[in-house]
C-alpha cells in the first residue's frame, strides 16, 4: 500500500467523520438531542448505524465533538508553557488566545447550539464529566512537571482550582450566548472576566509549576 493510498484513505475517513458530525448537529438543533436517534443520523448521513458508532462510540460525542481537545487542552497548554511561565500564566494566555479566535472549545458555539446543550440533561451531565476528565489530565501533567510524589495532594488541588476557573469562564461564554450576544461582544467581555478570575488564583498559584528559564 502506497503512502498516497494511505493518505487518501485517511482523508476519506476525516470527510466521513465530519459529514456525520455535521448531519448530527443539524438534527440535534432541529429536533433536540434526546429525540434524535443514531438511526436518524445514519439515515441523514447515508451510512450504516455501525459506521456512526465506529466514529462516535457515544451519542454525546456527536454533539460535543471537540471533547478530546476540550479534555486535553489545559494539560497541553501547561506542557507547552514558556520558560519562566507558570501553569496559571500559561492557562490564562491560552484562554485569552482562544477568546480572540472565538474558539468553540471554550464555549463559542452559537445560540442554537448553546440552547441544544443546555436543553438536554444528558449533555449537561456529559459536559460535567468532561470538566472532571480535563481536571484529571491537568493534575497528571502538573504532578509530572513538578516531580510530585504519588501521595502529594498539591497537583490535584491546583488542577481543581485552575479547571474551576476555566469552568466558570466556559459558563460565562455560554450564558452570554444564550442572552443573544454576538461572538464579537462576548470575546472582550469574557477576556476581562478571565483576567479577574485568574487573578483571584494568583496569590496561591502564581508561581506554581513555573518552567525554569532556559528549559523548553
Automatic annotation (TrEMBL):
UniProt xrefs under PANTHER family: HTH-TYPE TRANSCRIPTIONAL REGULATOR BETI (PTHR30055:SF234), HTH-TYPE TRANSCRIPTIONAL REGULATOR RUTR (PTHR30055)
Listed GO MF terms: DNA-binding transcription factor activity; transcription cis-regulatory region binding
Name of the protein this chain belongs to: TetR family transcriptional regulator
Keyword set, alphabetical order: DNA-binding, Transcription, Transcription regulation
Domain of life where this protein originates: Bacteria
Annotated region of DNA binding: 37-56
Originating species: Planobispora longispora
Residues of the HTH tetR-type domain: 14-74
UniProt xrefs under SUPFAM superfamilies: Homeodomain-like (SSF46689)
Gene3D superfamilies assigned: Homeodomain-like, Tetracycline Repressor, domain 2
